[in-house]
Design goal:
Strand content: 15-25%
CATH superfamily of the largest domain: FAD/NAD(P)-binding domain
Helix content: 25-40%
Structural class: alpha+beta
Shape: elongated
Number of strands: 17
CATH topology of the largest domain: FAD/NAD(P)-binding domain
Distance between the termini: 35 Å
Order of helices and strands: EHEEEEHEEEHHHHHEHEEEEEHHHEEE
Largest sheet: 4 strands, parallel
Length: 355
C-alpha cells in the first residue's frame, strides 16, 4: 500500500520504519525543517550536545523503543546514568528516588507512622499491579488523596501534578500516574549527542529502508477519494495515497470536516472505532490529545470520535481492531492504524516534558 505519514516526530518515523519493514510504500511529510517534532532539540554553535525543547528520557523498562534502537544498530549510543533525585521540603533537600528506601525514610522523619504505612501499601499496589484498567475510572487527585492520605498527598504528590499539568491537574487520570510508578527505573536513559541526534539517526535508518522524507513541507489538507484512499495536498501539489496517518493537530484542523484526523484504510477500522468510543471522557486519551498531538479518526464522517485510541496510560502495546496504541504516560506518540489485519506499527517513546 501507498501510505502518507504527516509528522516526522518519533511516532511518525517509527510508524514509517515498521510499515516499510512490512513492504509498504511510505512518504513522510514534516512542516518543520528538522525531524523530532515536540521532542526535538536545539543546539548553540559551541555546544557538543543538543538540548530538548521539553525534558525527555527513557526508562530501562522501555523495551519497545530500546528494541527499535537495537534494530537500527545504535544501542551503543544509549546512556543510562543514575541521576540524583531529591525533594525540597521545609528548607532542605532530601533524597527521594526509591519507593522502598529513601522515600519511606523521609516520610518517617516528617509524617505520622500511619501515613508511612499508607504510602507503602499504595506504592506497592501501583508498582506491582498489572491491572491498570480500573484506574481509568478515577483521577490521580482522587486516588492519591484517598490512598496516600491528605497530608502526604498535599506535601508530595499534588505539587508534582500541579507543576506538570497546572490548573488541569485535577483532571489527570490515575492510570497515567500508575504508568509513571509502575514502569519507573532509577536509571534514566538518553542518547549520545542528545535526543535530536537520536531522531536524526532514526530518520537516516528510515530513509535507508526506502521511505521518503519531505522536510519543510506542510500538509494543507487530507481529502478522501470517492473510490477509497486519500489525497494529501501540500504547497508542491496533491498526491494520492491508500492510507494516511497524522500526528499533527494542524493537519486535523486543515482537513475537511468529513475527513479530519483521517488515519486509516477505511475497511479496517470499525472495531477500532467501537473500542475508542468506550473510553471515559477524562481518560488519559483525551488529556493527552488536548495537550499534545492529534490522532485518529476512523473513517470519513467519524470526526475524532476515536481519539481515545491514541493516548492511553498502559504499559506495552495494545492492538484494537488493527490500531496499535502506545500507552505510556507522558510518551510522545501517534496512534498508527494497521493497513492490513496483520501489520501494525510499533510506536513507543518516553517523553517527560509536557508543553
Amino acid at each position: 500500500m501507498k501510505i502518507a505519514i504527516i509528522g516526522a516526530g518519533f511516532g511518525g518515523m517509527a510508524a514509517a520504519y515498521d510499515l516499510r519493514q512490512a513492504g509498504h510504500e511510505v512518504t513522510i511529510y514534516e512542516s518543520a525543517g528538522y525531524v523530532g517534532g515536540l521532542a526535538s532539540g536545539f543546539k548553540e554553535p559551541h555546544w557538543d550536545w543538543t538540548m530538548e525543547k521539553f525534558y525527555h528520557h527513557w526508562f530501562q523498562s522501555d523495551k519497545d523503543v530500546l528494541g527499535l534502537i537495537d534494530e537500527i544498530g545504535a544501542r551503543d549510543q544509549v546512556l543510562f546514568p543514575r541521576p540524583i533525585t531529591a525533594i525540597y521540603y521545609q528548607g532542605r533537600f532530601h533524597p527521594f528516588d526509591s519507593m522502598f528506601t529513601n522515600m519511606p525514610l523521609f516520610l518517617l522523619r516528617h509524617f505520622p507512622l500511619t501515613d508511612v504505612i499508607r504510602f507503602g501499601l499504595a506504592g506497592a499496589q501501583l508498582k506491582f499491579r498489572a491491572n491498570w484498567q480500573a484506574l481509568e475510572q478515577v483521577t490521580a487527585d482522587q486516588w492519591l488523596r484517598e490512598h496516600m492520605g491528605p497530608r502526604v498527598y498535599e506535601a508530595l504528590w499534588k505539587p508534582l501534578l500541579v507543576g506538570k499539568f497546572s490548573e488541569s491537574y485535577a483532571d489527570v487520570n490515575m492510570a497515567w500516574m500508575w504508568a509513571r510508578i509502575h514502569a519507573r527505573t532509577t536509571r534514566l536513559g538518553t542518547f549520545v549527542g542528545g535526543f535530536q541526534a537520536f531522531f536524526e539517526t532514526l530518520a537516516a535508518a528510515v530513509q535507508q529502508r526506502g521511505a521518503t522524507l519531505h522536510l519543510a513541507t506542510a500538509v494543507r489538507e487530507i481529502a478522501p477519494q470517492d473510490g477509497g484512499g486519500f489525497t494529501v495536498h501540500t504547497p508542491h501539489g496533491a498526491v494520492a495515497y491508500d492510507a494516511a496517518a497524522s500526528s499533527k493537530r494542524s493537519a486535523r484542523r486543515s482537513a475537511s470536516p468529513s475527513t479530519r484526523c483521517a488515519i486509516a484504510a477505511p475497511s479496517r477500522i470499525e472495531t477500532a472505532r467501537r473500542a475508542a468510543s468506550s473510553a471515559p471522557a477524562r481518560s488519559p486519551a483525551f488529556i493527552r490529545a488536548r495537550a499534545r498531538l492529534s490522532c485518529v479518526s476512523m473513517r470519513p464522517g467519524a470526526i475524532c470520535s476515536s481519539v481515545a485510541i491514541c493516548f492511553a496510560s498502559t504499559a506495552g502495546l495494545r492492538k484494537n481492531g488493527g490500531v496499535t496504541s502506545v500507552p505510556s504516560c507522558t510518551r510522545c506518540v501517534m496512534a498508527a492504524t494497521a493497513v492490513s489485519s496483520v501489520h501494525a506499527s510499533r510506536i513507543a517513546f518516553a517523553g517527560e516534558g509536557t508543553p
